[in-house]
Amino acid sequence: MSPDDFALLQPHLQLVHTELRQTLIAPNEPVKQLFFPETGYVSMVTQGSQGDKVEAALIGWEGIVGASPVLLGTDRTPHHSFVQAPGKMLVIDKSALCAAVDQSPSLHKLLLRYTQVLLVEAVQTAFVNASYQIEVRLARWVVMCHDRVDGDELTMTHDFVAMMLGVQRSSATLAVQALEGLLLIKAKRGRMTVRDRQGLIDLADGGYGLPEAEYARLIEGA
pTM of the entire structure? Predict the structure, then answer.
């Protein structure tokens, strides 16, 4: 983001601390605030008729939570965005963001480009979930979480892994044990430590990298 565009937003930004599983964007309710994560990250999930949830995208320091419906001319989304790893975020009211976007074509373009990245990520997640074994899906997910933290330790439980991958807890436990057996991660109660990032990327077998390349092309290369 350019200094001029940030200057439009800065007076309206408020620093907040988030909590694990805190709802930021509730499904089918008007979006009133948008969030720029500084630390921690957010899951955007879709929910089935039986209450089962599957993650469609992760949003961390690289993005903004709630932008897609606002930028695309609606006021709500059927998806649920909540805190997966607590941290600090900059929050802005929808009206203030919209005013800044109306004033700055470059800011509007940047946020639309990020919306494209988020769409690519969601489609890639759908492809990976339909095409790969659980261990491969887990490897991709761990790397994506690792991208959004400082250090190698992630906060997650087997229950959380199961929910994010849309599988039973027993299947999630076996997948975690498989990655541990390959010396790619080390898991303990409520925590997971990345031991071999490149090994995880190799195991992800092309499932990881497409949204990241799109981000580099559209955002970092802009």
Answer: 0.90
